[in-house]
Amino acid sequence: MSTMMGKWKADATRLLLTVSLAAVASCAAAQGSTAHSHGHAGHAKARDLGTGAAFDKDGRLWVATKKTDNGDQFIVVQHSTDMGKTWTTPTRIQATPEPIAASGEARPHIAFGGKGELYVSYTSTVKRPHIGDIRFVRSLDGGKTFSSPITVHANRDAITHSFDSMVVDADGKIFIAWVDDRDARQMKAAGGRYAGSAVYYAVSNDGGATFKGDYKVADHSCECCRIGLTLNDKGVPVAMWRHVFAPNIRDHAIAELSADGKVSAPVRVTFDDWRIDACPHHGPSIAYGPDGTRHQVWFNGKEGEGAGALYAATQSNGKTRKPVSLGSEQASHPDLVVQGRQVSIVWKQFDGQSTAVLTKLSEDGGATWKEKELARTAGDSDKPYLAAHRTGAVLVWRTENDGVRVVPIQKEKP
Hints:
Blueprint: H1 2-21, H2 24-31, E1 52-55, E2 61-69, E3 72-80, E4 91-92, E5 109-112, E6 118-127, E7 131-139, E8 150-151, E9 161-168, E10 174-180, H3 182-189, E11 197-204, E12 212-221, E13 228-231, E14 237-245, E15 249-256, E16 267-268, E17 285-288, E18 294-300, E19 308-314, E20 324-326, E21 331-339, E22 342-350, E23 355-362, E24 370-377, E25 385-389, E26 392-399, E27 403-408
Antiparallel strand pairs: 1-2, 2-3, 3-4, 5-6, 6-7, 7-8, 9-10, 10-11, 11-12, 13-14, 14-15, 15-16, 17-18, 18-19, 19-20, 21-22, 22-23, 23-24, 25-26, 26-27
């Protein structure tokens, strides 16, 4: 029996990777460029279920989703005061429809300013799959009215600007990072070689009225993996992305960002040595504890030990704990939130019939853990997303069958 189970797990892992890599040809062809001629790996059957979520200062949960009406696409927002049991009527944030990316690694993002300003960033797709622009909308009156969308980046070429992430620092500065194809295109046009894409960002110092950039974080990022973006224990924005290390290793790097475009030298932070000429469509997530410990989760598709979703922590002195596998080899798309000593992690896991979201929760900074299942669906679903509430992390998971599901990682203490 153990031999059969081992064979089933190995076959299932190979099937998972085969399904991911099956999208390589179609994704690269749709780009209409040699910039990604080595290909992409993608999700199988895309659904526009990508959902962003955040709690405001009053504890209301806001979500941003894509809505299509008679072929017209919009971003809509709504909020809940009772952890998703009831919702307000969805409100469009744009007066005019525009194509929206909200599947795979792409989703709209919500963040709040110190005075309750509501910010939404998203990718507007000019040409599928990833030729587009990073757009931004704000509301200064609690979601009653919204500004006209603006394009965040100065570059206006019809290239990849996609997979945006957003964070707001303690001073109210808005940082938005994205995957960008300009350098790859320029290099290929000149007859050179360029691995992957690049990571860029822009900053707003005036509450989203205008943005300054475009500041390059690094060359040679993966083309279709989301960017992890957070504030460290000192309040400095830190980006984590899947990087293409020579010759074709798809591990991860981090760098600190600043409001004036000064970026720290990228530091490699995973060492799986996954060599693949494709983009896995599996971005990382990163968060810091108050003691400076860096917590990170990511996906490794390299066959053998360590395949699947992984977690690791690095203390401020540079000492790193050995990476820990999350769930089975079918675990994917992990996310995490750190609040004080509490570390919450979620991931998806497919058992051949249905998809579950599982969690690991630590109350002591990652020294010990409790694990349980949070939700399950037999239909298609978004990637699991964690939002930080004052009582702890909350899973926000949009599924094809049940809509937006909201599940606190642990029950609120009386």
